[in-house]
Design goal:
Number of domains: 1
CATH superfamily: Metalloproteases ("zincins"), catalytic domain
Largest sheet: 3 strands, mixed
Shape: globular
Distance between the termini: 16 Å
Strand content: 5-15%
Strand order of the largest sheet: 1-3-2
Radius of gyration: 13 Å
Number of strands: 3
Helix content: 40-55%
């Protein structure tokens, strides 16, 4: 993914939209090649997303973005985290299975 890649801009806009809805502010958003997961949230508030996430469905992109942004509020995957996921993204559990599958590069 090059610096001016439309996929990077798409993810940035998606993060901005969801950050406003969730009332959170990530310190930084990075898009980079990731081989083991679709996204991460650092303890310092940095969100990192996989560069091939734009190749996935919009629903899955929203799931990953919301999942990582909610970690800015709740660090663990406990009951509160799951309740917030359900409140903001009903039906999120169908994407959770996909998130845990290995990323396959062809």
């Amino acid at each position: 993914m090059s610096f001016d890649d439309p996929g990077r801009a798409l993810l940035t806009r998606r993060v901005e939209k969801w950050a406003a809805r969730l009332n959170v502010r990530p310190r930084a958003v990075r898009v980079q090649r990731m081989t083991r997961k679709w996204g991460s949230c650092s303890s310092g508030g940095r969100i990192t997303l996989a560069s091939d996430l734009p190749d996935q469905t919009e629903g899955f992109q929203d799931f990953i973005v919301v999942h990582e942004l909610l970690h800015l509020r709740v660090h663990a995957h406990g009951r509160l985290f799951k309740a917030l996921m359900s409140a903001h993204l009903p039906g999120w559990r169908r994407f959770d299975r996909q998130r845990k599958e290995p990323i396959v590069k062809i």
